[in-house]
């Protein structure tokens, strides 16, 4: 699977990236009931199988791209953000 750099992603869609953090108000995970449903964005292991639920939920989020850019720019090293695991985001930064 080919991996694109974060720079190439932001060059292709600069108008999709919010300058501020307002996108967070529209995030699918904002109103997630962590007590009842657990935390699919921070699975117990880094395996692909453990990450499936969080990645699938991110796939349906309309601010996924903003979340991914924020995670890469802030060097978030754990969990699933913008539909990508920490390892996948590390590859984007290269």
TrEMBL record:
Classification via Pfam families: Whib (PF02467)
InterPro entries with a match to the protein in the record: 4FE4S_WBL (IPR034768), Whib (IPR003482)
Record keyword Flavoprotein present: no
Localisation: Cytoplasm
Entry keywords, A to Z: 4Fe-4S, Disulfide bond, DNA-binding, Iron, Iron-sulfur, Metal-binding, Transcription, Transcription regulation
Record flagged with keyword Disulfide bond: yes
Reported cofactor(s): [4Fe-4S] cluster
4Fe-4S Wbl-type domain residues: 28-91
PROSITE patterns: 4FE4S_WBL
Predominant localisation class: cytoplasm
PANTHER family: TRANSCRIPTIONAL REGULATOR WHIB, TRANSCRIPTIONAL REGULATOR WHID-RELATED
Homology family: Belongs to the WhiB family.
Name of the protein this chain belongs to: Transcriptional regulator WhiB
Annotated source species: Glutamicibacter nicotianae (Arthrobacter nicotianae)
